[in-house]
Specification:
- The chain is built from 13 helices and 8 strands.
- Strands 1, 2, 3, 4, 5, 6, 7 and 8 form an 8-stranded parallel sheet that branches.
- Helix 3 runs parallel beside helix 4.
- The mean pLDDT is 94.
- The structure holds 5'-deoxyadenosine and iron/sulfur cluster.
- Iron/sulfur cluster binds next to loops.
Amino acid sequence: MARADQVRRKHLGNAVHFRGLVEISNHCRCNCLYCGLRRDNEKVRRYRMKPEEILSCARLAKKLGYGTVVLQSGEDPGCSAEMLAPVIRGIKRMGLAVTLSLGEREAEEYKLWKDAGADRYLLRHETADPELYGYLRPGRRLADRLADLILLRQMGYQVGMGFMTGLPGAEDRGCRADLKLMREMRPDMVGIGPFIPHPDTPFGREQGGELSETLRMIARVRLMLPYAHMPSTTALATLHPQGRLLGLQYGADVVMPNLTPAEYREDYTIYPGKAKPYDPCNEYRSLVKLLDECGLVMGKGPGHSIFYERRRKK
Ligand code: 5AD
Ligand code: SF4
């Protein structure tokens, strides 16, 4: 832990970047065995936010001083590329960076959003084991996801990978293959959180990921990719009351406060226990206090990846 903390402070200083999360749609065409938003879960009340609703969340992000808005959804073709492009443009006009986390989409859609000004794309690889990947995400292939990550990077996006600790089927394999894959791909961002079983999924009775294992993985990635931006994930905070703080102490340098309107938030149930009815202003205040207590400060500006800044200067 101490080493990961040192490396974080040496390469990234004591700034923690705030990325305001807006969960814009919980529709999903996928059927991932681990996720509460999977297609077959009929208990989910599905919603899709309107452009104006998304923009008003972005305005709140701006008011609170966040540098980035993250638009996240299931894989929802109903959330069309044409609908989102003007939303992205609107957020960019506010002077904010835009991160997308909308699953695997068509190359033309990635392109349209890039041209609208999107900066980053999160597409966790979930597991580096192709066979396990095909089992966990029926009908999908790891190779396609990795090809998308490469394409996104070529288009000029900063890209994020990541995985869950303690996923059923992956326990005894450790995360060596995940670390190796990320060493090769050198993503700008890495998201790691514990798997949390959701009762309305095939994995409802499985064991969840552990705090210590998750923290160890965050620390190892920090040592391996000193410049990568890594969130102290909400899943970590769900697992343990001090989870967010511990993530930051083990090498994470990003927090993702939730800006999703209260009426939708409780329906974005990737895993249970997540939907705390937190008022965004309160969450902001409690995060700043948390940072203060451990000698960290809120980052200024968009908090782009250093690799990206270097690529741009070339
Ligand atoms: N527990 C924790 N994380 C989950 N995700 C999906 N389902 C779960 C779960 N049950 C993660 C996946 C996905 C991200 C948006 O949420 O890694 O990429
Ligand atoms: Fe859909 Fe993402 Fe959940 Fe898979 S993990 S079911 S793609 S929302």
